[in-house]
Amino acid sequence: MEWCIIDNYMNNKSNWLGPVAIGGVGGSGTRVIAEILIQLGFYLGKDMNPARDNLWFTLLFKRPDWFFKKVTRKESHIMKGLSIFEKAMTAHGKPHSEELSFIMRAVVEMMFKGHDYSGSGRGLWPIRRAVTMLHSKKINRLKYLGWGWKEPNTHIYLEYLNNHFHRLKYIHLMRHGIDMAYSRNQSQLYNWGRMFGIAVNDSSIPLPRLSLQYWNEANRKAITLGRKHLKERFLVINFDKLCTDPRHEIELLIHFLGLDTRCVNMDELERLPRLPESAGRYRKYDLSIFGKEEIEAVRELGFIVDI
């Protein structure tokens, strides 16, 4: 593939673009954007699951107990984790003893805290992630246009990521909030709900309403932080629009990445987004369980709600 880079800022700094990160509330369609970036020639990691999650990022950062416990020195711990992650992804040196201890603590927490991170965190899973990370090899940059990763929980760390990666570009996916409220994928609600004061164990509140509260708050925070800190390096993609009008949304993405659409096989990329059968499922449910302000927030974030 012959790549045409039109982003002069990125191109003058390096002939390898990135990092480009992809995140969103779980189930928002981040996998499709990862597939598009891979088609474009971005390296997203060597240890990924079928959903294209970067499992090194998962091991290091999908750790709510660790995140909320590190109150006094939280930023220094997170920045250390990001340094480890960057070394593994770009193969710029091996971790030193203190960084090895950081990785081992992540492994132990995943193994013994008893959490179920949607298929991660139990058995040999954390050990396998650590082994692949510690044996990461230098990337042949001639094979790739740039690098990045996809992991839905990335949005939790936006402010820290911006402080560490000064050239970071971040893509935030959003899918219809009320559809998401009825999804089986509620791991982010349970992992991070306390960040927004959401009482995830309150049995008096229906789970879909708790889920929508999280969706509203998490997306609002991501957008606020992205616009404040990343500015033009922050992009929101509406998954529903991506599926119904893929050319327009993919063109926005291509431009955001600093590429020229004339050098991209748009027909091939347009075939990647597919509107799932669950789209619009919220219409089957009684929406009276939601507050008016919660539904209005979904509209304010760009989605139509039929009542």
UniProtKB/TrEMBL annotation:
InterPro entries according to UniProt: P-loop_NTPase
Gene3D superfamilies reported in the protein's UniProt record: P-loop containing nucleotide triphosphate hydrolases
Name listed for the protein in its UniProt record: Sulfotransferase
